[in-house]
User: What shape does this take?
Amino acid sequence: MVSGRARKEAFRLYRELTHLLYSDIPREYRIRYLILIRKISMKTRTRIPRYLKIFYCKKCKKIILPGVDAVYRVRSRPYKHIAVKCLSCGAIYRMGYKT
Ligand SMILES: [Zn+2]
Assistant: This one.
């Protein structure tokens, strides 16, 4: 059982690590932080926020960096979504969004 305090701390860490991910850091650090985020989520049994889920492949669960390991396309039909193509496993999947 994980305490509520640990969960709160996890969400604080997600926010902090997101700041780091969107700053100008080398690829190795980016991957390290993403591994850390997954570890935190498993240990504290919290969901990874939507804005961080774009960094993980839905099918092979590998870490994908936009423009390097995956191609992102914004499409509007049949519903508004981002089409993600993982370049390591070749899977194409949709991530819906609302405006
Ligand atoms: Zn994949």
